Amino acid sequence: MKRTLYWVNKDLRINDNAALNLASKSDHLLCVYVVDKQSFAANKFQSKPLGATRWRFLQDCLDDFNQSLSTLGQELYIVYGDTLSTLTRLCENYQITDVITTKLPSTYENRLMTQLSEQLPELIINQVDQFTLFTKDSLPFELEQLPVSYSKFRKKMAEVTIAEPVPTVQSLPSMFDTLPAPTRFKPEWLPTASATKTEQGFEFEGGEQQGLKHLRQYFSSNSPAEYKQVRNNLDGWKNSSKLSPWLNSGCISVRQVIRFLTDFEQQRGKNDSTECLYLELLWREYYQWVHCKVGAKTYQFKGLAKSPPLTTFYPERFNKWCLGNTPYPLVNAFMHELRQTGYLSNRGRQIVASCLVNELSVDWRYGAAWFEEQLIDYDAAVNWGNWQYIAGVGVDPRGGRHFNIEKQTTLYDPKGDYQAKWIDQSQQSAQANQALDSVDASDWPVRQ
55-86, pLDDT tens digit by residue? Predict the structure, then answer.
């Protein structure tokens, strides 16, 4: 008798879920999501892996997935605590024979599965390859021969066929009879205050149903055909696809997005914008496989480079950057939007990252960790890969990126509309006139 534990992670959907399809062939099934305590504890970069805004979005995703499971006679068993000990205990208590989960290109989840296998050697662990557009077996090269640049990767993948989404699960096995009632209490280490909603920003609701709704709306409009013209705008609901929060949480799959994009091109025609949208999805794909290949180097100071960048850590500068109190008004506006909404345009992310690395000379990893805490569309490979790219320690052979803030302001916010939306005039004037540092290298006060 196959007694299966399905460890739910970034696959919070019923549609195109190969892991759930595999789990449906079991005799008994336990669907588990672990809310890990470590996600809410400050790390060595002074940020928490999961902030209040991300947590609110994630709760929407969990509620929606649980409702979908209930229509199939199942329930999402949410446990608060340590992931490894929780999975181990459940496997032992319910005589689990098989663990099924989505394979993620990350060091933490893969290490955890290795540890679980070592503790329970008779356990069969199935890691389903479905988070990425292509599977490892479909790559036209061995992972160690992954191209060292995105352009070379793009050329090699041009002839590879993209798999169709898998059929939707129609039924699921029964739960275990002795399963305890779901945990209703909220542990003290969860965020005590709910994320504040802002009138200026956009409201993202988590869950597969909201993700599919937005996916249909986006591709039923003409926006994909205009993507290239608006993708660098700082603001506006249509300046990007806005699919990333649901995509990176696993509420929709990248194969579903490609299916919609292909249908759009067949019905309305292919142009530079639809091609550009595909290439952005391919960038996401490339970062996943880079992460899978290099592992822990993703989080190291020197990244993929031979030597580390010429930056350090200035606590005051980092704090001003996080709170939007730098001498750069455009950067401050971006950081206010990020903190209040959990979202930021791609152009905004590049500019604030460049500011932290180049103008403030702060260790890039602190910025990447702050993004991890704040962004509702956080993805480890994409986030840390992009920060490496800006810092000059990533996949770009030409070195880092330095954005001229004054030029960027002139190009993308010439009238100051975006800045006015997120910071008031008096605050902006005060910040523009303040010194970057209040103390010098010896911690003596800097004379104003």
Answer: 999 999 999 999 999 999 999 999 999 999 99
Output the pLDDT for position 398.
Answer: 75
Average of per-residue pLDDT values in the chain: 92
**Bridge partners, 5 (sequence order):** 30, 99
Which tokens in the block code for residue 13? 């959907």
CA 157/CA 172 separation, integer angstroms: 35
CA distance 227 to 273: 5
How far apart, in Å, do the first and last CA atoms of the chain sit?
75
Q: Is the pLDDT of residue 289 over 90?
A: yes
Can you tell me which residue has the tokens 């061995």?
142
Three-class secondary structure of residue 28 per DSSP:
strand
Nearest to 15 by CA among 196, 248, 211: 211
pLDDT on residue 244: 97
What is the residue type of 166?
A: V
Let me know the angle formed at the C-alpha of 46 by 298 and 294, rounded to the nearest 5 degrees: 5
Kind of pairing, strands 28-36 and 3-7?
parallel
Q: In whole angstroms, give the CA distance from residue 320 to residue 392.
A: 23
- In three-state form (DSSP H/G/I as H, E/B as E, the rest C), the secondary structure along 198-223 is CCCCCCCCCCHHHHHHHHHHHHHCCH
Domains contained in the chain, CATH given: 3-131 (3.40.50.620), 208-299 (1.25.40.80), 315-433 (1.10.579.10)
For 400-421, the DSSP string reads: -----HHHHHHHH-TT-HHHHH
Residue-level pLDDT at 437:
81
- Cα distance between residue 271 and residue 269, in whole Å: 7
Structure tokens at 98: 């098989």
Q: Give me the DSSP letters along 233-298.
A: -SS-TTSS---HHHHHHTSS-HHHHHHHHHHHHHHH---HHHHHHHHHHHHHHHHHHHHHHHGGGG
Lowest-pLDDT range, 172-176, 180-184, 311-315?
180-184
* Cα distances (angstroms) measured from residue 385 to each of 82, 276, 279: 27, 19, 16
The percentage of the chain sitting over the pLDDT mark of 90, rounded to a whole number, equals 84
| C-alpha count within 13 angstroms, C-beta hemisphere, residue 316 | 11
Q: Which residue is it, tokens 């940020």?
A: 47
- pLDDT above 70: percentage of residues in the chain: 92
Radius of gyration of the chain (CA): 23
- Best CA proximity match to 323, nearest among 405, 201, 431, 196: 431
